User: What shape does this take?
Amino acid sequence: MRTTIAAGITSGILLASGIQLLAHHSGAAEFDVNSHIELSGVVTKIEWTNPHAHFYIDVKDASGKVANWNLELASPNVLVRNGWSRHSLKEGDQVNVTGLRAKDNSNVGHANTITFPDGRQLSFGSGPGN
Amino acid sequence: MRHRVWSGVVMAVTSLAVVSLLAQTQAPAQGQNNTKDKAKSGGGGGLYRNQAPAPNGPAPKLANGTPDLSGVWLGSGGNDSDISTPRSLKPGDKVIMLPWAEALMKTRLSKQDPEANCLPAGIPRGSPYPWRIVQTPTHYFILFEGNIHSYRQIFMNAKHPDDPDPTWYGHSVGKWEGNTLIVDTVGFNDKFWFDYKGHPHTEQLHTVERYTRTDMGHMAIEVTIDDPGTYMQPFTTIGRATLMPGAEILEYICQENNQDLQRLEGPVRGPGLQ
Assistant: This one.
């Protein structure tokens, strides 16, 4: 496993603004801007809750060991107004997720983009099509 | 599991919509009628992709001639990130804290922010969530979707009680001056923060809000903050709100699953990743 630096300053600035507006707390106090994650796995649970929706995925590493990750989204209200529904993501879905890892280094992250095997994408604040 | 370099392109596209909310909720009120907030991504006219564009046209009035402020609005009366940001203050105004307040702010932690604890944001701190104004002959109500899912009541043409119990939203009385609704509030507790930076206040806080619907889809909001217990002099914040036509307030119960609090680390930070 290795952690690398963000590709572009511009994207970082934009993401910062995104979290700023879609969270009820400091994004920087919870997530590490230098700890970018990309995870592939199967959705095991969805919490369509406030102040943030969460989904959980089982991620298998090269040795076959499975870890469950807790990934945070915007609130359901923000998601719905951006094209999501509570059915957009379902248990059993295979997904690839990019985001930021929590500063406490736990298996918790802020999900930015979710990609399905057929190429469809969902993102933190936006539903299909964005 | 792999950690790897992030593609800036995907992030940039993803984030554009929410950047537009920044402009909507925190931009100063000057130039109320500019078209900047009408050029948003997606099919709508605002932050949210499913948000209809804010209409133009004259500001409506009730049958008795009173300006009609009713509707669902998005925006706030100040800069939620840092209330002292010059561009969100009336020209010439400055936020000058007394030494105790400056010292307190330096000790504040992100996890102590009432906002992060699902407690009221107070006045004039806003959020990414819309709010509705309801006008009746005797009371005006502001219904907040979040944060928190609560309400303010404004007693029209009334007086403050002599010794109001301190509360999060205080005691508000309203009156009209021309087309501007003046809301005078006292009786605050000292608990909410003005912004993510943790600007404090005391129970001496007195706010005067001025709401002017400049056209059908836009509202100018100015808030004069006078707290001699905390600040050397009063100052006025400038903000605005945009109408969300056809929108409804949704439920937002912040306490439901507030997992974030346990993971917030360190001193106060801006709401983003700064």
In short: Confidence is low (pLDDT under 50) at residues 1-45 of chain B. Residues 8-263 of chain B form a domain with the Lipocalin fold (CATH 2.40.128.20).
